[in-house]
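Table S7 (text form). Paired inputs.
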Amino acid sequence: KAEYRYRGYRLYDEDVADIDENPEFDTYRLSLDGTLIFEREFEALNREYQQTLEPRLFYVYSPYEEGQEDVPAFDTKNKTVTFNSLFSGDRFTGDDRLADLDQLSAGITTRFFRDDGLEQLTFSLGRVWYFSDRLVTLNGRETELERRHTSSTLGEAEWNPTQALTVFSFLEWDPEHMIG
């Protein structure tokens, strides 16, 4: 996927004399997303099941674009960390920052479908490897997280014993920030 992203603003602040009233910045983003799906059938607990094994790789690159720190982060926040956020290709919500990215996400999911079609169990595990420090920040100050070479390991589990009941669990494991 190839994208071109542009941001332009018209800012007015009578109290600040040297503000750039029309800041603009733009950049491109390239990404490659690949998934394989392997399936097998088996029997357990007197029931037929189909299991999938789904490895996924997602590479994204977007260069650093200067000048973004001159624009307030009106509606932009850091993205909530979930397994799916590993494969989103952005670090922020909102449109006030164009994240600089050079990273590879890897994950694996396995699903168990009952013979009646209900997806009864799902397990996912993944992580991001960063090939360069992230320079775009929300507050203008670099943190330790922008200098790390890997993300936390993220895991999710979902169990659907019936169509009406779901139990969901999320785990974030970060060996660099262990309490002890």
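Next pair, protein 2 of 2.
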Amino acid sequence: MSRYLRVRMVLDRLVAAVGLVVLSPVIGVLGWLVHRHDGGPAFITVERVGRHGRPMRMWKLRSMRAESADGRATGVSLTSAGDDRITPIGAKLRAGHLDELPQLFNVARGEMTLLGPRPEAPEYVDATDDDWRAVLAAPPGIAGPTQLAVGDWERDIITAAPDGSAYERDVVPVKVAIDRWYVEQASPGIDALVVVGLARRLAGRPVGAL
């Protein structure tokens, strides 16, 4: 991992710790709304692969039906457009990516960063592959460049084949290539472009012309 990413990882932990204090009332209210909707748990953790291939539990506000003992939905780890497991309040949280706010806790713990490769589910990671090893040299991020490059295409692929077969075959190799490029080339300038692009995407504006 580059010196820039190592320094930014430390800064991200500080920013996340402050963010948790500032946003804790917002996260608390959102959690209350999630629980109030169906009586299930407000927060869940999902298994993801972290830095150096270590397993980690990523925190989220629950956006799907609580179908298992730990509050998570059953079925595949991928979420397609119109997935009937998503609750009404969950759809609103996902629209603004508010369900990701608890991941600030993962960042404060040093398991994630604010910006980086999105963490993948274990079944889609090949830790023996050179590209994957390069990606896993850095901690995963709450947001990352693949969301800009393949977000809509990824959603369409998953919706067409929700069993994950097309995602694993077609999407994962592209995401890994982009993430490897990011980990090896990350700089303040590249991060600024990614942040602007993500902000434009969240606002519903085209991201092509940064």
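Residues 206-210 have pLDDT under 50 and may be disordered.
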